[in-house]
Amino acid sequence: MHELSIVTSVVESVTESLAAYPGARVLEVRLRVGALASVVRESLEFCYGIASEGTALEGSRLVVNVLPVVMHCEKCGKDVELEGVQSFRCPLCGEPCFDLRQGRELEIDSIEIEDGKEAA
Amino acid sequence: MTTRIVELRQGILKKNDELAAGLRASYAVAGVTVLNLVSSPGTGKTAFLEWTLTEMRKRGVRVAALVGDLETDNDARRLASSGAPVRQINTHGICHLDAEMIGKHLDGWKLADLDYLFIENVGNLVCPSSYDLGEAIRVVLLSVTEGEDKPLKYPTMFNSADAAVITKMDLAIPCGFDRWAALKNINEIRPGIKIFETSVKSGVGLEEWLGYLKQKRDLP
Questions:
Q1: Between A17, A38, A96, which is nearest B156 by CB?
Q2: Taking CB atoms and an 8 Å cut-off, how many pairs form between chains A and B?
Q3: Does domain B31-218 sit in CATH 3.40.50.620?
Q4: B93 at the A interface (CB within 8 A)?
Q5: What is the sign, positive or negative, of the torsion defined by CA atoms of B105, B110, B111, B113?
Q6: Could you tell me the strand order of the sheet in which A25-34 lies?
Q7: Who among B11, B129, B191 is closest to A97 (CB)?
């Protein structure tokens, strides 16, 4: 529902980072989004086109890497990946899990840019 | 032309997270316990909060509230009848409160004069889950009229909550509310979470809720 504000923040952050690379063109922006981050990949991609229009990011590709939920199972003593977000139990032993280790990420991972001038 | 990968590794909501961290620090300095109340529209957040503010004030507890809605100050007027300081935040279309809105609306309030600050979020079980307001306790509310599978439909919100409140328990029987299914679903998404089954009409569960609030403040 709030994907447009999310991608608008992405465009602003990347634009700030580009100050270090004058004249560079952005080819791709890669995000890491946890399965519990409450955002929808398709909606992010759709909104990205609108948010990047008229910026140095216009025409670039948005790649959304969705990360599964990882919980720490106390009984098994290790981190376990959940198959979905309908049950927060260890898939190995069935015990409830309380300690979330991955799944709420909402991050810009990296960008791929083309330098503004000919390579030496 | 050369292409290269630049690692950024930064939170998309970095600005909000930084502001929220600042708020959290100022709440700690002032010694105020801050709660963020989230639910669907119509769950009864305002009625629940109105009762909570009124009752706590009767017991000499210093409370205040911020309330978020897209439009109108109806909820702030309702909550103000408790006698507590209340401010309305109108988001004008934005589906959640963020840390910047909270910071702006706290301007002029002396937080050190408060024991508890309640933030009633915009009625929405999706977007508010992403925005940290610096709160110590996130409370998710669910009414018996909404269906027992709400936690399964909105796992992000329920999984990020510290306590769950079921409202309108006085309507449980007419609504055919399956209590065990609701409790099981909440526990499936957030194992071990504290759950309060309440009604501001009948009074059920409310003393337990106040006890929880007191205990949260007594703890170091």
A1: A38
A2: 109
A3: no
A4: no
A5: negative
A6: A61-67, A25-34, A106-114, B3-11
A7: B191
How close does chain A come to B97, measured CA to CA in Å? 12
ipTM above 0.95, yes or no: no
Single-letter residue type at B12? I
Structure tokens at B35: 């709660």
Global confidence as pTM:
0.92
Identify all chain A residues contacting B192, using CB atoms and an 8 Å cutoff.
96, 98
Q: Are B8 and A2 inside 8 Å of each other by CB?
A: no
Domains of chain A: 1-67+103-120 (3.30.2320.50), 69-102 (no CATH)
Chain centroid to CA A104: how far? Answer: 10
- A2 part of contact set with chain B, CB < 8 Å: yes
Mind listing the pLDDT tens digit of every residue in chain B (220 residues)?
A: 789 999 999 999 999 999 999 999 999 999 999 999 999 999 999 999 999 999 999 999 999 999 999 999 999 999 999 999 999 999 998 899 999 999 999 999 999 999 999 999 999 999 999 999 999 999 999 999 999 999 999 999 999 999 999 999 999 999 999 999 999 999 999 999 999 999 999 999 999 999 999 999 976 5
What is the phi-psi region of residue B83: left when phi exceeds 0, alpha when psi lies from -120 to 50, beta otherwise?
Answer: left
